[in-house]
Amino acid sequence: MAESVPEPGAVRTAAETALRLLRESGATAATAESLTGGMIGSVLTGVSGASAVYRGGVIAYATDLKSGVLGVPAELLEREGAVHPEVARHMATGVKDRLVADFGLAVTGVAGPESQDGRPVGRVYIAVAGPGGHADVREFTFPGDRHAVRTATTLQALRLLADSAGLIRQK
Q1: Is the pLDDT of residue 4 over 80?
Q2: Contact (CB, 8 A) for 61 and 86
Q3: What is the pTM of this model?
Q4: For the segment 59-100, what is each residue's pLDDT rounded down to a tens digit?
Q5: From the CA atom positions of the chain, what is the Rg in Å?
Q6: Over the stretch 119-156, which tens digit does the pLDDT of each residue have?
Q7: What is the distance between the alpha carbons of residues 117 and 31, in angstroms, rounded to a whole number?
Q8: Which range among 4-13, 23-32, 65-74 shows the weakest confidence by mean pLDDT?
Q9: Which residue windows are transmembrane per the record (predicted)?
Q10: SS3 for the chain, per residue?
Q11: Going by DSSP bridges, is the β-strand pair 103-109/29-33 parallel, antiparallel, or unpaired?
């Protein structure tokens, strides 16, 4: 299912755009990644000048780290599992607060090959927490194999971060 994998150029362009918009708005960002395992942070830091706006990231692959490091309520994780929109929201807010950034970007989902927490392969939740405490959470179902799902998640997360940074710049 390689046809569903976004082009590498699209991912890099999304990272460049997000970083440019953050820089233009005078904002910073931090990431909390689960299924992408650091892909988002890697793409961001692959762009020259990223250190001016990218604070860093947390790879909370294990469920207990989502609670212990990012502050996701343990009872939420026990009740809903790690793949849930409210988990993504708490991850985004947690990384924003803990890494002292203007924006927190978080991803949690099922890359496959098997379903998890009753969620199908390809189900992903992406959250962006911005200034003022509001967090926007989106649900996606990406087609393809593990690589395709992780790459599509990275691309869409970067696009959502860019959209959020662009909105701040317009105010």
Answers
A1: no
A2: no
A3: 0.95
A4: 999 999 999 999 999 999 999 999 999 999 999 999 999 999
A5: 15
A6: 999 999 999 999 988 899 999 999 999 999 999 999 99
A7: 23
A8: 4-13
A9: none
A10: CHHHCCCHHHHHHHHHHHHHHHHHHCCCEEEEECCCCCHHHHHHHCCCCHHHCEEEEEECCCHHHHHHCCCCCHHHHHHHCCCCHHHHHHHHHHHHHHCCCCEEEEEEECCCCCCECCECCCEEEEEEECHHHCEEEEEEECCCCHHHHHHHHHHHHHHHHHHHHHHHHHC
A11: parallel
Q: Which residue has the higher pLDDT, 3 or 79?
A: 79
Tokens at 152, concatenated: 């599509």
Query: Tokens standing for 83?
Result: 């793949």
Q: Which residue has the tokens 């020259």?
A: 48
129, β-bridge pairs: 104, 135
Q: Which amino acid is at 169?
A: R
All structural domains of the chain: 2-165 (3.90.950.20)
